[in-house]
Structure formats: structure tokens, C-alpha cells
Amino acid sequence: MVEDFLDILTSGLKELGIEPDEDILNKFALYHRELRNWSKAYNITGLKDDRAMAIRLFLDSLLYLKVFPDLPRVRTRHIRVLDVGSGGGFPGVVLKIARPELSVSLMEPSWKKAGFLRHICNKLRLTDVAVIQSSLQEHVKSTEGKVYDIIVTRALFRTYDFIRKTEKILSRGGVLILSKGPTYCEEIKEAQTRLGSKIKDFNIETIAQKLPLTDIERYFIRVTLT
Fold it and tell me: Which of 2, 78, 90, 146 is most enclosed, with most CB atoms within 10 A?
């Protein structure tokens, strides 16, 4: 099972231009095993097939790195990333494994999934990771001055709604990244219209990326607070 998963994942990493580092592969293998075990009792993911899990969870999450802004790896502080609606840790935990220098916060309101996130971060011995068991609205209300450089989500919000809900916790020059399907154009038009005069504060762009080992096209909406 693990060998099949790793073979698929390695092929996908090569297609993404990511060197399949042994330590990273070992962490992904452990992550995959724990995810399968927990899902039997808590349904962390509905995917059962190794190929589907490798592609639609792990490789899909790694696609976010292709649209990250050009932020330097060496800086006075770590890049602060918030994964909203992290679920089983996608993309947040996957991004942390691939880019250990990131400071990652995983937001998930479900206590079952938040419990899994704490478990897997501990199991993988990840540092500089926080699990926030909260909704986005509650977190914004309770946050005092904390901001993030990159905020990501997987199709949970429409673009306009995500901009309005996160603008108070996004750093100047920070970016929002949303993964969307082929109807993304409608959301961009809606955001531009509803933002009105505030549109000048944001740079909205779309970046298409092919999901490795498939013919599926992902459309990432990247919103930069200017």
C-alpha cells in the first residue's frame, strides 16, 4: 500500500519539478498511513484509493507552492501561513512538510479533524505549527493584531467573501490564494464589482496549473493586498 502511494507521489513530485527528498517522502508516507487509520473511525477524508489520495490530497496541496508569491526563504521572521478550513491538513500540513521554514497555522472548526491535525503534527514532529479550532469569523474577532503573509483555502469561500473576511488579518503585501474550478471568472467579476472603490487596494490575478498525473486544470485566484 505504502509503496504504491509513494510511487505515485514520487512521479507527481517529478512532474512538479520537486526533488523527491527521502525525509519528505518518509513524512508523507507516515501522514498517509495515519490519515487512512483515522479515517476509518472519524472520516477525515472520504478518499480510499491510494492513487486518488496521492493526487487529490497531497499533489493538489503542493500545487499551492507553484503560485506562492516570491517570498525569500531567509528573512527576519518566518513566513506566516494560515490554512482556512484545513480539514485533514490539506494544504497546510503538506506545505509545512515541503517547506519546513514556513510558520503555519491550521484553522479547522471540527473537533474531530482538529484532533487529527494535532495528532499528525505531533507524530511528524513538526515545529512552528498551530492548530486553531475555530471558524474564520470567530478567529478574526479574537485575534488582536496578529496578521498572516499568506492565507490559503480550498474552495470553501467565494472570492469576494474570502477577501472581506480576511482583510483584517492579512499583512500589507500579503496574499490570499484560493483554488477554484473552471467557473472562477464569475467569482472574479463578482469580487471586482462588489469591492467597488476598494478594488484599488487589491491586485487580483489567476494562475492555471495542471494537476500532476491528470488532465485536470486547477485555477488559483491570487489576491495581493497592495
Answer: 90
The domain spans of the chain are 2-225
By CB neighbour count within 10 A (0-12 exposed, 13-18 middle, 19+ buried), where does 103 fall? middle
pTM: 0.95
- Name every residue whose Cβ is closer than 8 Å to that of residue 215 and which is 6 or more positions away in sequence: none
Q: Residues 2-225: name the CATH superfamily.
A: Vaccinia Virus protein VP39 (3.40.50.150)
Q: What is the pLDDT of residues 132-190, one digit of tens each?
A: 999 999 999 998 778 999 999 997 899 999 999 999 999 999 999 999 988 899 999 99
| Cα separations in angstroms, 130 against 8, 118, 133, 152, 183 | 29, 8, 10, 15, 33
Cell of 223: 489576491
Question: Residue 219 belongs to what H/E stretch?
Answer: strand 217-225
Cell digits of residue 220: 488559483
C-beta atoms surrounding 22 within 10 Å: 7
* Residue 91: cis peptide before it, omega within 30 degrees of 0: yes
